[in-house]
Amino acid sequence: MPKSLQEPMDGLSHPFEDDRLNEECAVFGIHGHPDAAAHTALGLHALQHRGQEASGIVAFDGKHFNAHRDLGLVGDIFGSQAVMSRLTGHSAIGHNRYATSGATVMRNVQPLYADLSLGGFTLAHNGNLTNAKSLRRELVRRGSIFQSTSDTEVFIHLIATSPHGSLIERMLDALNKVEGAYSLVAMTSDSVIGVRDPLGVRPLVLGRLGDSWLFASETCAFDIIGAEFVRDVEPGEMIVLNGGEPRSIKVKTPPPPRFCVFEYIYFARPDSVIAGTSVYEARKAIGRELARESLPPSDLVVPVPDSGVPAALGFAEESKLPFDLGIIRNHYVGRTFIEPGQEIRNLGVRLKHNANRSMLKGKRVVLVDDSIVRGTTSRKIVQMVRSSGASEVHMRIASPPITDPCFYGVDTPERSQLMAAQMSVEEIARQLDVDSLAFISIDGLYRAMGLPGRDKEHPAFCDACFTGQYPVKLTDVESRDNESLSDLTELERA
User: Fold this and answer.
1) 247 half-sphere exposure, CB direction, 13 A CA radius
2) What's the pTM?
3) How far is it, in rounded angstroms, from Cα 175 to Cα 173?
4) Burial class (CB in 10 A: 0-12, 13-18, 19+), 451
5) Helices 132-141 and 152-161, interaxial angle, to 10°?
6) Which range marks the domain in which residue 27 is found?
7) Which of residues 228, 258, 288 is at a domain's end?
8) Domain co-membership, 212 together with 340
9) Contact at 8 Å (CB) between 178 and 171?
10) Is 485 domain-assigned?
């Protein structure tokens, strides 16, 4: 392993328990630019919302793969000239990580690097392989030695052990063996490669900056460096960047796409454009549809910041009600806090949010939020609004009830911890102490996305967290094989 890949171990302080579906991960790649690593760091900074626990960049300078990875935020990791000066090269890939299970440790921080028989190879992955355990078990039986607990490493071993000749052929062979949702960015000594899963569950876009070509999880990463968005990487497509125009290869003949609809509701940055749709406009459209479906007698629309703001704006526009910031968010409370004790943890909501009392007193308030997961944060925010003098509190949610966990790269609680899986809407309303509660309907969500409703036989999106209808086989979940990987190590999603 190159010396630059031998980073010291480190640890993060304990984060507050967050009542949200946690972000997945972010990937970025650039080929043919003298400041490849600097542009990658800026792109990762724009994609910070997709993963805040760790970040890494690997650059290639014509002879060496130069890497730096660490735990923490992009600005802290890549904010020094000393670090960036070591990341020389005309090509680079990067990754922001959110660990979806287990501990965040250096061995799992991406991009992962390997010396293959064909040369150096580095890989970053957003998503989750639903047959990773069975693949890993077979690879271990055949002699593979894993260095991480990430399912991303399964890709590397499949490529390393493939009988095919070229790197592209080996990647195609590996991709034909995996199941699940994934967007990949890989780098060799002469190419940067982007791949998207056949259903297009996870996002990946192609951009251009002068003569350089780029990949990113979202278009907002192009905006920060002044790059031009060219197009989405198509579901089931591999794009190879190695000089000249990008080369497109079909990995598989894709079925109708099933992009994750929750990207539009919460995950993606509102200033991104996905599949030709502005995320911000989609969220406003969801809010308008929500107001059409369920408008209570009220005086004021208040968003739960920040994710509820666009939907609340749409709700206010449709309902003709005033919109105001009745809750103010403290933007200087990050995901980590220095060893908080339980008493401080109990104040977590007030550390992040505070009521704007002058706006709430005596008002019938409609609180608009993007989703309810466990309900713990929602309950505390309702209590905050009531204690600030609101005469009524009505909650409107810009997603259908979340009843099922995601197995495609999003950190969701077990079904037993999902509030909507255990209670009716009326029971949730009583638990949250609201005067009324309504979620947008699943058909209303599809109408907001410009469709007549949800086609039950062929839905246009992956909406499994609302419907339990999973578009990709859950091999590891459904397996009745009692043989466990626990004696090897705990598998972790990317």
Assistant:
1) 11
2) 0.89
3) 6
4) middle
5) 40
6) 3-258
7) 258
8) no
9) no
10) no
Q: Are the beta carbons of 453 and 461 closer than 8 angstroms?
A: no
Q: Does some domain include residue 36?
A: yes
Distance CA 193, CA 195 (A): 7
Cβ neighbours of 96 (radius 10 Å): 32
**Number of structural domains found in the chain:** 2
Considering 192, 225, 258, which residue would you say is the last residue of a domain? 258
461-462 and 247-250: which strand pairing? unpaired
What tokens does 211 get?
């003569």
Q: Which residues of 57-67 are buried (b: 16+ CB within 10 A; e: fewer)?
A: bbbbeeeebbb
Q: What is the pLDDT of residues 392-434, one digit of tens each?
A: 999 999 999 999 999 998 878 889 999 999 999 999 999 999 9
Catalytic site includes residue 25: yes
Do residues 215 and 287 both lie within one domain?
no
- Regarding whether 249 and 126 lie in a shared domain, the answer is yes
Structure-token match 């923490």, residue found? 72
pLDDT above 70: percentage of residues in the chain: 88
- Residue 347 counted as domain residue: yes
Q: Which of 25, 260, 462, 465 is catalytic?
A: 25
Judged against a pLDDT cut of 50, whether residue 112 lies above it is answered with yes
Same domain, 54 and 158: yes
**How confident is the model over 245-254, as pLDDT tens digits?**
999 999 988 8
CATH number where 378 lies: 3.40.50.2020
Residue 64: half-sphere exposure toward Cβ, Cα within 13 Å: 10
What type of residue sits at position 58?
A: V
- Token pair of 99 as six digits: 């660990």
Calculate the dihedral angle through the C-alpha atoms of 420, 426, 428, 432, rounding to the nearest 10 degrees: 160
In-domain check, residue 493: no
Identify the residue whose tokens are 């579906």: 21
Tokens of 394: 């009505």
